[in-house]
Amino acid sequence: MRLARPVVFGNWKMNGLRAEGLALAGTLAERAVRLTGTLGVFPPFTLIHAVAQRVKGSGILVGGQDCHEKASGAYTGCVAAPMLADAGATAVILGHSERRHGLGETDALVRAKLVAARAAGLLVVLCIGETEAEYLTGARSARLRAQLDGSLPEGIGPEGLVVAYEPVWAIGTGRTPTAEEIRATHGEIRELLARRIVGGEEVPLLYGGSVKPDNAAEIMALADVDGVLVGGASLDARSFWTIYQAGGGA
Ligand code: PGA
Questions:
Q1: Coil vs helix vs strand at 128
Q2: CB of 166 sitting under 6 A from ligand 1
Q3: 230: which of 16, 28, 149, 240 is 20 to 30 A away, CA to CA?
Q4: Is 96 in the active site?
Q5: Are 186 and 144 in contact (CB under 8 A)?
Q6: DSSP-assigned letter for residue 190
Q7: Ligand 1 centroid vs 129 CA: distance in angstroms?
Q8: pLDDT number for residue 97
Q9: Where are the beta strands (DSSP E) in 103-223?
């Protein structure tokens, strides 16, 4: 199924106790009268069930921020993809830089998680992005290609896949690449996906990293940018909704 554009996803990260998470979800659900685009929130595991209940019927999608590569077993503290689905999630973020760089996740691990998530029927938001050192030394393209090659399983189709380009140095810093850099990079990723996956040009491409209400319109107007993955600004209902509208969503 093709996701309606814009695709605007909010990654709450490790934020939100029950009261504030439900208030945020409730405000979004009230605004989402008849969504013309795709709006989704990715709360912490503890809130997935409650948030999914709260937004039920609004069309807002709810997802997890990670999953384990196995479906069940002796993995203390981990959450499996079928558990996310069972809690009401229909999507999952995989390979976020805070997991790749903060927790040492490799492309191979991300690929195994991706297989598990697809087997559980979850939409996968695969994150890729270069570090600042790679950006400064012109190693960005090679890095993105390696991450896509390493993270995408052989023979995967375009269904149920979204790719988010998130430069590590732009996440939570207030800095972003220039519009021209984002456009060029998304064009490269689109080509890489088209070569790697049959129908890969259909995969929605999101930009992430310091997306705010005041830069969202410019970013989402760029060719090959189908939407955004928002961190900090997704914790405020008004900011998040403004970003969604800036991409043409109603
Ligand atoms: P940010 O985070 O919007 O706070 O920069 C983006 C992300 O990590 O997905």
A1: strand
A2: yes
A3: 149
A4: yes
A5: no
A6: H
A7: 12
A8: 96
A9: 123-128, 161-165, 205-208
Nearby residues of 217 by Cβ (< 8 Å), 6 or more positions away: 246, 247
Query: Is 172's C-beta closer than 6 angstroms to any atom of ligand 1?
Result: yes
User: Which of 125, 204, 140, 203 is CA-nearest to residue 170?
Assistant: 140
Tens-digit pLDDT profile for residues 96-137: 999 999 899 999 999 999 999 999 999 999 999 999 999 999
Residues in the chain where the model's pLDDT stays below 70: none
Assess whether the C-beta atom of 247 lies below 6 angstroms from ligand 1. no
Answer yes or no: is the C-beta of 213 below 6 A from any ligand 1 atom. Answer: no
- Angle, in degrees to the nearest 10, between helices 140-151 and 107-119: 40
* Tens digit of each residue's pLDDT (9 = 90 or more) over 221-232: 999 999 999 999
How buried is residue 41: exposed, middle or buried, by Cβ count under 10 Å (0-12/13-18/19+)?
A: buried
Confirm whether 154 is a catalytic residue.
Answer: no
Say which amino acid occupies 85.
Answer: A
Ligand 1 centroid to residue 174 C-alpha, Å: 9
